[in-house]
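sorry for the late reply, my laptop died twice this morning and i had to redo everyting from scratch. anyway the thing you sent over, i finally got around to it. pasting the sequence first so we're on the same page, its 292 residues, then the predicted structure underneath. double check i copied it right bc i was rushing
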Amino acid sequence: MSSVITTTGLTKRYGRRTALSDCTLHVPAGHVVGLVGPNGAGKSTLLQLTCGLLTPTAGTIEVLGETPHTGSPRIGFVAQDTPVYGNLTIAEHLRFGAHLNPGWDQALAEGRIAELGLDPAQRAGKLSGGQRAQLALTLAIAKRPELLLLDEPVAALDPLARREFLQGLMAYAAEHGTSVVMSSHLVADLERVCDHLIVLVNSRVRVDGDVEELLGTHHRLTGPRRDPSTLGPGRHVVQASHTDVQSTLVVRSTAPVDDPTWASDRLDLEDLVLAYMTEAGAHGRDRVLEKR
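ok and here's the structure:
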């Protein structure tokens, strides 16, 4: 299977509000995918459509070759608030997971809890935020899912807890070849673990591609002020800013920029994401002004 998630024109509306619009994606199997965008961009909606918690308003979505449905043992999902039951012990969580999931790996779950140094008799309500996140991840991966979905799992964690969570995630994904899609607004964290990137802004897909390829084809150009349209074919201007004498452009280019008047620098992943988010926001403001 080359794609674990395939969508065509996927759209979700709540009354007059559009949460996701005309989303067409092919999420590759065996990769760790970063899903990035500002709050309200549609990240959680896309993940909930993927695991069957929501149904589309329009378009189609296929997950692991079938229509998504709730309770699929092939999908592990950790929601944004890393939900656990505060009055249950860790051991009771594991027994609950075993009861609900026919493919449950008790040895994996118990081994991971021991590796984390957690007491199985401790109630989840007494755990720290990082420990609750690790418990939620353990419950998701002990299902032995083919696809693991994580919705802002580290947003509320301190830097050390974030690093430990991501290290555990990467170790599991590397050992078992599980496909992972993780949403986050912490791009620096994603840059360390993800090899594929999706950027959502204003409910639409702005970027979808291999991280290495994206970083290799995006450049920041600085030179004398000029019209960006003069760059020529094969060069898409993502973002442009100008002073009286200078232009700074973020460009996606399939052709070399061989004009010596341009100074060219490569972008890191955060620069790339911010360029698309900033430009999309500017277009949105322009549309509002036009309507007025």
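The chain has two domains: 3-201, 217-291.
thats about all i looked at so far, will dig more tmrw
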